[in-house]
């Protein structure tokens, strides 16, 4: 694999680590409601476990309430039961065909737990980025050993990979600071 291939591959892998972190951070609950909190809820739909978003329309009714509008009237009770059993600490209430899911206010202790979770996810993303750096450097060492690249190419590419790693670590740190502020805001 040429040096340019290693560079692009490591950058793609690091970008995927950042995307995975973004995805994980959206699942961490803040004081505000967001339909993505119900992404992991599955409903028994005619014998098949189906994601909630596939059987109902999810909307924000206000800053602390998610509205769930089932596409079929007979699914209201099944959806309400699935939300209760999803172990998210949510207590839905039905008003006709609309299911209201109020988000309980977070206690200070719970907010601190959320911050710890954010930091844990961020550290996992940093480890992933560093692992991608290590893999790229090992590929470079192998190419150098096999005399497929020069020492100058090896050094330049290692410097590029290190700068890329530093850039992604800084981006992860910025995401953590932003999410911490969001979680701790009352």
UniProtKB/TrEMBL annotation:
The lineage of its organism: Bacteria, Pseudomonadati, Pseudomonadota, Betaproteobacteria, Burkholderiales. Belongs to the RRF family. Pfam families: RRF. The gene is frr. Keywords: Coiled coil, Cytoplasm, Protein biosynthesis. It comes from the Bacteria. It is found in: Cytoplasm. Residues 21-184 form the Ribosome recycling factor domain. InterPro entries: Ribosome_recyc_fac, Ribosome_recyc_fac_dom, RRF_sf. The keyword Plastid does not apply. GO terms for biological process: cytoplasmic translational termination. This is Ribosome-recycling factor.
């Amino acid at each position: 694999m040429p040096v340019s291939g290693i560079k692009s591959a490591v950058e793609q892998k690091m970008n995927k680590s950042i995307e995975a972190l973004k995805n994980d951070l959206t699942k961490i609950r803040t004081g505000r409601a967001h339909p993505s909190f119900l992404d992991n809820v599955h409903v028994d739909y005619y014998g098949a476990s189906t994601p909630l978003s596939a059987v109902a329309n999810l909307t924000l009714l206000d800053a602390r309430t998610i509205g769930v509008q089932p596409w079929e009237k007979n699914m209201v009770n099944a959806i309400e039961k699935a939300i209760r059993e999803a172990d998210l600490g949510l207590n839905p209430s039905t008003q006709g065909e609309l299911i209201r899911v109020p988000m309980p206010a977070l206690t200070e202790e719970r907010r601190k737990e959320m911050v710890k979770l954010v930091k844990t996810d961020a550290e996992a993303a940093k480890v992933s980025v560093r692992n991608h750096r290590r893999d790229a450097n090992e590929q470079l060492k192998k190419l150098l050993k096999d005399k497929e690249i020069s020492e100058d190419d090896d050094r330049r590419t290692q410097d590029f990979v290190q700068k890329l790693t530093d850039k992604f670590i800084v981006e992860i740190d910025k995401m953590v600071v932003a999410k911490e502020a969001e979680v701790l805001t009352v």
